[in-house]
């Protein structure tokens, strides 16, 4: 019975994390739209149609960079590189 409650608890925690990530992505998008719009206004650009596009690209790049960086740490790629370096040093 405890494995069922453990599975339900894991599901609920994953769902809460998913919802929180979506909310944070939306908030960061609005913040970046504000910053890009303000910067475009300071630079004298009046083309509002490209503000949302550039903000979307910046937020997508930030989300991807934040997601890729921890994955490379989890994959253990640095350990295999160290092992390869050790093997070549012994040769």
TrEMBL record:
Record field: compositional bias (Polar residues): 72-91
Keyword terms of this UniProt record: Membrane, Transmembrane, Transmembrane helix
Record field: transmembrane: 15-38, 50-68
Transmembrane keyword on record: yes
Annotated spans, Disordered: 69-91
Taxonomy, superkingdom: Archaea
Protein name as catalogued: Uncharacterized protein
Organism: Natronorubrum texcoconense
